[in-house]
Here is the input.
Amino acid sequence: MPVIFVNYRTDDEEGTATLVERELSRRFGDEKVFRASKSINPGSRFPQEILTAVRRCGVLLAVIGPRWLAARSADGYPALANPEDWIRREILEAFDTGARVIPVLVGKVNRLSRKELPPELEELADCQYRRLNHRNAESDLSRLAEDLVRIVPELSYAASDGAQEQFFRRGDPRKKSEAHKAAPRKVVHHRQRGGIGNVKGDFTGTFVSEPQGPVHTGSGDLYQVGEQHLGPQFSGEGMQLGYLGDNHGTVNQERERGGTCRSDGER
Here is the structure.
């Protein structure tokens, strides 16, 4: 679902709108930014797709260049006065749904005044704007992206790792903490080496990792006997130990010093 809707007039600043959309998509993800010519698939119903996207967005960016106000409809009247003008319809829909509307003034375009706009759009002149100068495009777009993060906190963890660090470094530390809490947690898998114990988390129970000797996992007994009864031996200081498990009873151990070890405890 798009969070940012890029509103622009085709005959005005379409190239700038594309620049804005691509940079924000790079930072926040392609699915977070809507631009009609990019986001509407062939064969889709244009009016329905446009209205659905603008109703679901949190922010509408109105890209305004030098020809934005001067645009005319086919009948010669100002395009913004035409109820069928899509620029007008998108902005009014955003106001109706409570989205934040930010005018993005391109180059040296003057700030909008109420008297220049149709009565239905006068509210647009009251909205705080941002300016985009192509000579300072990188810094202006970075500032715009930071503004969007403050307005829509979910964008802070939708951003790429590098962008997140940039936002957090310049922003309020409390917002950083809140964003980290809201961000999805990563699952880290560790490989346990050696030892016997209980593990909690994705599984529970007793585990034995990389055992270096015989392991008894049954409910019965483990006997230590001479080598004539069972294979593996461990020797030290003249002592030989063997192991035999029958899974019943207690655990018995016998040692052999220079003699034969018997399973019945006799020498």
Summary: The radius of gyration is 36 Å. The chain has nine helices and twelve strands. The CA atoms of residues 198 and 205 lie 5 Å apart.
